[in-house]
Amino acid sequence: MSDRDVSRWRRTSVHDVATTIDRLESAVAEFGGIKRIARVDQAEVARLGGARVAPAEVLIIENPGLVAELAAVDPELLSELPIRVFAWQDAEGQTWVRTAPPSRIGDGDSDHPEVQEVRAAIDRILGGWLDLAVAADGERSCDRDLGHRGEDW
């Protein structure tokens, strides 16, 4: 596996796909203030289209307060929201999880202070949630402060 295969926004999980997304969903719910838009079983959707694929799910979430802040700056910034976290099982049975980096909000070129603050909050907190989702039970793969409940992201 190359350094490009595992990164802050694309990593392996010690759990199966459903458990990884369950753990992520629990972390989001405990944090508060985040709206769960949907959880989609992509493998089931593929089966409806006639394909048989390994487990794959996407969790779609967003923070209404941050959406309002970004919309006030420039509605086009919302094109990268809501946040989508995708988990899948590869051909070898390894579970992976990935999401787009927060730097993509505003194509990464907005220097507006509100946009920078939103990116930093999402970076810190979403990264921590991914760490919790993929870690072995009782293990934290990061020591990041996840901020105050619902206030930072």
Comma- or semicolon-separated keywords:
single chain; 153 residues; alpha+beta; TATA-Binding Protein; 5-stranded antiparallel sheet; 4 helices; 20% strand; globular
Characterization of this structure:
This protein is α+β, with helices and mostly antiparallel strands and 153 residues long. The protein has a single domain, classed as TATA-Binding Protein (2-Layer Sandwich), CATH 3.30.310.70. It is 35% helix and 20% strand. It is built from 4 helices and 5 strands. A 5-stranded antiparallel beta sheet has the order 1-5-4-3-2. Strand 4 and strand 5 form a beta hairpin. It is globular.
SSE layout and pairing:
Blueprint: E1 10-13, H1 17-31, E2 35-41, H2 42-48, E3 56-62, H3 64-73, E4 83-89, E5 95-99, H4 113-134
Antiparallel strand pairs: 1-5, 2-3, 3-4, 4-5
Helix pairs in contact: 1-4
